Amino acid sequence: MNAGRSRLARGARWLCAGDVALFLVAELVGRTLLGLGTPPLYEADAGFEYTPNPEPTTVAAGARS
């Protein structure tokens, strides 16, 4: 009975490790190949609420210049 539990626990660990690996691969593919790591930047405008920034420079939130 204990051997069955050990096999189940080992399978669950492999399943979790596979899920984490799949997530990391999907994250890297999304950021590098699909361009999901570079969001469009907007600036405030008096006529409209926001307009796309013509010369975007990515700055981390809370970064000091």
Number of strands: 2
N-C termini distance: 63 Å
Question: Which series of helices and strands comes N to C?
Answer: HEE
Class by helix and strand content?
mainly alpha
Number of discrete helical segments: 1
Structure, described:
There is one protein chain. The chain is mostly helical and 65 residues long. Helices cover 48% and strands 9% of the residues. The chain is built from 1 helix and 2 strands, in the order αββ. The protein has a two-stranded antiparallel ribbon. It is rod-shaped. The relative contact order is 0.08.
Secondary-structure map with pairings?
Layout: H1 2-32, E1 42-44, E2 50-52
Antiparallel strand pairs: 1-2
Short description:
The protein is mainly alpha-helical and 65 residues long. The chain contains one helix and two strands; from the N terminus they run αββ.
Descriptors:
2 strands, about 10% strand, about 60 residues, 1 helix, mainly alpha, two-stranded antiparallel sheet, single chain
